[in-house]
Amino acid sequence: MTEIRTIKDIMSPEPRILSPQDTVAEAARVMAEENIGTVLIGADDRLVGILTDRDIVVRALAESRGAQCPVSDVMTQGIKYVFDDESVDDLVRNMGMQKIRRFPVLSRSKRLVGVVSLGDLAIRAQHGGFREALQGISRSGRSAH
């Protein structure tokens, strides 16, 4: 069995990317079809946001924006990310401190290579830090992703 040490070992490769002009309905359809809770938003070969199932509920539905509003209206901007060669221990600390459940994963050349989530940590890493990350995320305070 391969030893898990870095984020690359547990991340989900080939994340789904939508454009800022795509609708919330399209994003929700993609999430449902692919059984995922987040899509990345890209424009001009760079990441400009991240949209989670929670963003759809809190920023689109709860604010009565409707399913046809563009994802750019409800996505989270100012994306936090991690590098694929960082340790799983660093990921656990970042998730807990920043209260973030999902991170885009970049190579050191700043190319998007995947997404890593709390679920990836729980399922693939079987890392003792899962509980630590979950506790940090769950403490009072707003979660960014």
What does this structure look like?
This protein has 145 residues and is of the alpha/beta class. The chain has one domain (7-137): CBS-domain (Roll). Helix content is 34%, strand content 21%. The protein is built from five helices and seven strands. A four-stranded mixed beta sheet has the order 1-7-6-5. Helix 3 (88-98) runs parallel beside helix 5 (129-138). The longest helix has 11 residues, at 24-34. The chain starts with 11 loop residues before the first strand and ends in a 7-residue tail after the last helix. The mean pLDDT is 85.
Core attributes:
145 residues; 34% helix; alpha/beta; three-stranded mixed beta sheet; CBS-domain; four-stranded mixed beta sheet; single chain
How much of the sequence lies in strands comes to 15-25%
Q: Spell out the CATH superfamily.
A: CBS-domain
- Sheet/helix structural class: alpha/beta
> Distance N terminus to C terminus?
31 Å
Number of helices: 5
* CATH fold node name: CBS-domain
- Tell me the strand order in the biggest sheet: 1-7-6-5
SSE ordering? EEHEEHEHEEHH
Residue stretches low in confidence (pLDDT < 50, at least 5 long) are none
Instruction: Please tell me the CATH architecture by its name.
Output: Roll
